[in-house]
Design brief:
Length: 369
């Protein structure tokens, strides 16, 4: 799901997203509640009409944002009191309030209100956050709008027994789908994949599984192999606006001097309209001149890359050759990585995944910027 935190996938129009083949995008309850306000969106006829999107919409509950923005004033069993990062005003989120807001937004899929424990944290804290998440999941479910599909969220940090307990509990609820949360918060790829492996075996086969806030192309393939169906991540859009582009042969920094005289496409194996019509040299020129078109072209390309990657993953599943596809993809993607990345990219891709991240990681905190 492309991330449209505030009702827009940055630098893209809804028509372009549809053209790429996306049928589901993500919005954020926390940010849309603060601006423009859920009542404004209700008056507009819901988020679909407000942003002119004909596909489906999933709204995150805002739990991750409330707990990661460090504006919390009080956490209780009832909910969370926090200050707005916009104007400093005080607000309270409870499971019932969050479901009311998501109903007003009119999303097709809504998420339970949860507490995402930070990494690292002590096991006692992770257990308390998990138990609170479970109670809030029951209350969210009771307050849901029956017209909307409802997803519960598995927590448990990096503790195997907590992950199993949480997965079993959420799976016992009458949900339409289940998310694995509390990942991509700085724990690194190995622990992230373990969290998936500890959770998925206890989730029902007949409900979609959503890994929240993930991830890189490698993350997507490896998570699908482990049983995940749905993802959201700001990386393709955020990195695109900053000059980093995903290609068949790894991620590149288009600002690098080696592209000054490169009149070939950014990715010779990509057929998006950016690659069909513009050269790497031109895109580098646009970035150096701080032209808006640079962000538009790079973002379009990155999202198209992700859309085609997921399409190819689905084809590989249909053909029963997902493992072979992974080897084929990585043989190109990893072989040339070191040669095309600048120093700022190598930290993120060394050994496949060694990103230095803040608490938020690749998850959405403030409006994507």
């Amino acid at each position: 799901m492309p991330v449209g935190t505030q009702g827009t996938v940055k630098a893209m129009s809804q028509e372009e997203l549809s053209e790429m083949g996306f049928r589901l995008i993500l919005g954020n309850t926390y940010h849309l509640y603060l601006r423009p306000g859920h009542e404004i969106i209700r008056l507009a006829g819901g988020l679909h009409r407000f942003i002119n999107w004909n596909g489906a919409i999933l709204t995150d509950s805002g739990g991750f944002q409330v707990f990661s923005l460090e504006h919390i004033r009080k956490i209780g069993e009832d909910g969370v009191l926090f200050r707005s990062y916009v104007d400093g005003s005080y607000h309270k989120f409870t499971p019932e309030r969050v479901m009311e807001i998501q109903s007003a937004l009119g999303a097709d899929i809504v998420m339970a209100f949860d507490e995402c424990a930070p990494y690292p944290c002590e096991k006692d804290y992770a257990a308390a956050a998990m138990n609170r998440t479970h109670e809030w999941a029951k209350r969210s479910l009771a307050a849901r709008d029956p017209r909307q599909a409802f997803f519960g969220i598995v927590q448990g940090s990096v503790y195997e027994d907590l992950r199993r307990e949480s997965a079993e509990f959420i799976a016992s609820l009458d949900t339409d789908g289940i998310a694995v949360g509390g990942v991509s918060v700085g724990e690194g790829k190995d622990l992230m994949m373990r969290a998936v492996e500890w959770s998925v075996p206890y989730l029902p086969d007949n409900k979609p599984r959503y890994l929240m806030g993930v991830g890189t192309p490698e993350d997507l393939i490896d998570s699908v192999i482990r049983g995940i169906d749905m993802f959201d991540c700001v990386l393709p859009t955020r990195l695109g606006r900053n000059g980093s582009l995903y290609t068949t042969y790894g991620r590149i920094n288009i600002k690098n001097n080696r592209f000054i005289n490169d009149f070939s496409p950014v990715d010779p194996e990509c057929d998006c309209w950016a690659c069909r019509n513009y050269s790497a040299a031109y895109l580098r020129h646009l970035y150096k001149c701080d032209e808006i078109l640079a962000s538009r072209l790079a973002t379009y390309h990155n999202l198209y890359f992700y859309a085609r990657l997921m399409e190819r993953i689905r084809e590989a599943i249909d053909q029963g050759r997902l493992t072979e596809f992974r080897k084929e993809f990585l043989s190109k993607y990893r072989t040339h990585k070191a040669s095309v990345h600048d120093d700022s990219c190598r930290q993120e891709t060394e050994n496949g995944y060694t990103r230095k991240r803040s608490y938020a990681g690749s998850r959405q905190t403030r409006p994507e910027s």
